[in-house]
Amino acid sequence: MAWVAAGSVMVSDWHRSPESREYFSKILHKKKRRKFGLLEAPVMPPHLKADIVRYKVFLSGKSGVGKTTLAARLAGLDMPNIHYETTGMETCAVFWPVKLRESGRILFFHFHLWDCGENATRRFDHMLPSCKEHADAILFLFSFTDRGSFEDLSSQMSRITEPSDRLVRLVVGTKFDLFMHTDVTERDITRFQEVLGVPVFRVGGDVSGGFGEIAPLLNALAENLWHQDCMHTSTSVPTVPSNSGHIGPEIIV
């Protein structure tokens, strides 16, 4: 699918505006992110109405690139201090409010993140199909400190997805804060984006200062998923098919 320019569908940096504060307060507790179970949702007062749209997002990448850490960053969970191989599947929920540019409508995106260890997908044939089943987006990860993980991206993307798949595809480079040890240059990133037409996002470092690091990735994910649904249904309000992996929209009350 064609990449959507940032801010063309949703208001850029809305999370920084005073209008958004009351919405974002519903995913915070004592200035830290709330942890939501898979069946939980932010509780909104009657005067603040928003629609929930749910999407399944699969995190793909070589062992050690930081899939589990990225999921923890996006969900506001404690990040592991040491690397360990994910032995099976792990899932978590991420809520992210946005404002549509044209209608001014507020949406709460519920991203259901699926993380699966590389060795598990190789040992058990059902793992990868389960992660891909009803997925709406795939985040392909590489590490800036592991050039092999970057060079593997093209084959990984062709191995996991088909051209006919209706999926949002984004690439995330982890450990960007370790720029002194980087094995991947800006020239490499620019060429990759030009050749494959897939944007690359950078994460790494301290996230205690707020949403600044994760906002561009979550906004891009939300914007492209919403646009994909709009294009699929040819309407400004996507009608979710009954066999889809996500449910929406539904009113938060």
UniProtKB/TrEMBL annotation:
Gene3D superfamilies reported for this sequence: P-loop containing nucleotide triphosphate hydrolases (3.40.50.300)
SUPFAM superfamilies tied to this protein: P-loop containing nucleoside triphosphate hydrolases
One GO biological process term: cell projection organization
Keywords: Cell projection, Cilium, Cilium biogenesis/degradation, Cytoplasm, Cytoskeleton, Exocytosis, GTP-binding, Nucleotide-binding, Protein transport, Transport
PROSITE patterns, A to Z: RAB
First-listed, main subcellular location of the protein, grouped into a coarse class: cytoplasm
Family: Belongs to the small GTPase superfamily. Rab family.
Name of the protein: Ciliogenesis and planar polarity effector 2
Source organism: Hemibagrus wyckioides
